[in-house]
Amino acid sequence: MKVGGKHFRTIWLKPDDERVVQLIDQRFLPHDFVIEEVGSVEQMATAIREMHVRGAGLIGASAGYGMYLAALEAACAGRDSFDEHMAGAAAQLTATRPTAVNLSWAIERQLQNIGTGKTADEKVALAKRTADLIADEDAEHCGMIGQHGLQLIRQIAKAKRNKMVNVLTHCNAGWLAFVDYGSATAPIYATHDSGLPLHVWVTETRPRNQGSKLTAWELGQHGVSHTVIADSAAGHLMQRGEVDLVIVGTDRTTCTGDVANKIGTYLKALAAKANDVPFYVAVPSSSIDWKMRDGLKEIPIEQRGAEEVKSADGWYDGQQIAVRITPDESPAANYGFDVTPKELVTGLITERGVCEANEKSIRSLFPEHAP
Ligand code: MRU
User: 243 CB contacts (<8 Å, ≥6 apart)?
Assistant: First the structure.
């Protein structure tokens, strides 16, 4: 997508030195556009854990490039320790964040492909090719999700006689959470580009404010009409007929259709059900967990530090500052994600089309994953 009129992906290899990965450091958005250079698996693990990069697809792509950096390191360390170094890197990257399944998916894909190489040079080349492939596929799949989602929005627009369609989205399942286009935002961008009138309600998404900081910024860069709302305003808007559909992303969706996404998604799904608002989840197949069946019991929910809840940060006088918003002594809990049961989901928008949130329908689109 474009920033200041120039096309950017969220992660790429440095053009004049392909031993370095460049990425948009999202901690400074929307106020500062900073590109970070990452040259080791250690640095990549930090970038994922500390959320310089975040969002399921981008976490997967970053892990892919992290494994490539690990392969470069392993090649220097000598052939005998190559596999050992890769196993250590895989463990280090896997430990960064637990909920998005794209992380382990990308690491396993890398280990499998690298394993087919015979020499260290071959393995490095395979790691680079696989990392590029993961990133390219991510962008391509999000683009396809955009086209399938566009059909859904067109139907709603037609029923409204081409009056403004209001979409509500939560958190940032946008371009910044992937390599390009985004999952939940891809249908939004496709609709906007098609010329249909569209407006997006953007929930702020406490405690890290991915909605008000990131989604609002990227929609603005693309010229999409949007309004930021407090998280707690979503039900009110649905009750009053101000929301035509909800589209959210997912960090992990079970093969049975349960959806893990940013904390607060479940409440939006409940409000959507109560008000007959269609609730769609945009899900590239890299976010489907083909082994898990019960989202509530099985999906690991990340808990982050209390400080994120006890404070809010923003820009003041040219710098980023954090201020305390709770009593100093009050404890706080910080659950990063929740699980929306399949019964509350109207449909899943995948790169292969829209399906129902149940095992039969999901597997019919992805028959190669038959149990
Ligand atoms: O904690 P984050 O910012 O990495 O959370 C991920 C998300 O942005 C959301 O849960 C998103 O809706 C799905 S990721 C495509």
Answer: 166, 167, 168, 201, 234, 237, 272, 275, 277
> Which is more confidently placed, 58 or 370?
58
Residues 209/172, Cβ–Cβ less than 8 Å: no
pTM over 0.90: yes
Rounded Cα–Cα distance for residues 73 and 85 (Å): 8
pLDDT tens, residue by residue, 147-159 = 999 999 999 999 9
269 CB near ligand 1 (under 6 Å): no
User: Which element (helix H / strand E) includes 193?
Assistant: helix 185-194
Inter-CA distances, 189 with 32, 316, 319, Å: 23, 31, 31
Residue 90, H or E segment:
helix 82-94
For residues 352 and 148, give the distance between their C-alpha atoms in angstroms, rounded to a whole number. Answer: 8
Backbone angles phi, psi at 201, to 5 degrees: -85, 125
Summarised one tens digit per residue, pLDDT across range 48-97 is 999 999 999 999 999 999 999 999 999 987 656 899 999 999 999 999 99
- Is-contact 358 256, C-beta < 8 A? yes
- SS3 state of residue 56: helix
User: Over pLDDT 90: what percentage of the chain?
Assistant: 96
Structure tokens at 108: 């396993």
Q: Is the CB of 251 under 6 A from ligand 1?
A: yes
Question: Which of the following is catalytic: 180, 251, 289, 338?
Answer: 251
Asked if 231 is an active-site residue, the reply is no
Q: Whose CA is nearest to atom 11 of ligand 1?
A: 173
Asked if 53 contacts 47 with a C-beta cutoff of 8 angstroms, the reply is: yes
Residue 4's pLDDT band, with cuts at 50, 70 and 90, is confident
Spatial separation of the C-alpha atoms in residues 23 and 18, rounded to whole Å: 13
82-105: buried (b, 16+ CB within 10 Å) or exposed (e) per residue? beebbeebbebbeebbbbbbbbbb
Contact between 62 and 48 (Cβ < 8 Å): yes
- Mean pLDDT computed over every residue of the chain: 97
Ligand 1 and 171: CB distance under 6 A: yes
